[in-house]
Design brief:
This protein is α/β, with parallel strands linked by helices. It has one domain: Rossmann fold, CATH 3.40.50. A six-stranded parallel β-sheet has the order 4-3-1-7-8-9, sandwiched between helices. Strands 2-10 form a two-stranded antiparallel ribbon. Helix 6 links the parallel strand 7 and strand 8.
Length: about 190
Amino acid sequence: MFNQKNKEIENENVIYVFIDASNVWNAVKSIKKFIEYKKLKDYFKNNFNTSKVEIFYYDAYPKEGTRDYNLDGKHKFYTYLKKGLGFTVRKKELKRISIISESGESVIEKGNMDVEITIDALHNINKYDVAILFSGDADFLALVNYLKNHGKKVYIFSSKDNISHELKTGGNGYFDLKKINELWGKDLKHRAKE
């Protein structure tokens, strides 16, 4: 009986989804609608013949006091993804870097999550058959090739205006996020001034 159960698990098509929030945000701004994350697991179950979907969400958020709006909503969203939908949420504060040039001092913010995505994809490599990567960054081509060379199928979800040619053609398939109507929900509205 134990061996039979193991066989069933081995034959199961398990999907791990890795969502780079900054990449998705570019599609959201372009289409002017929010993604309905509660529909994501069903979308993959219905379209990828799987019974198990694990979703990882990666985002960097502004340092408190650096915006003229309250960040509570962002942190409530993370809680909703984690506790309400069962996602694994990886988040970190944006790093603020002072740049001094001839025109004076300015601050840039960086919140790249590529390393965290790569670590999770490699750390969990024996737990899934299919990796879904929500990103258009060519830097992920090395990860995509590594996963494919280890027998994984890798599909890229991005948008035509935010994907590198290398990544678009490097996986087992590419899906234009903007054309997947069932994932899009409420209209994006401009934030009200406080």
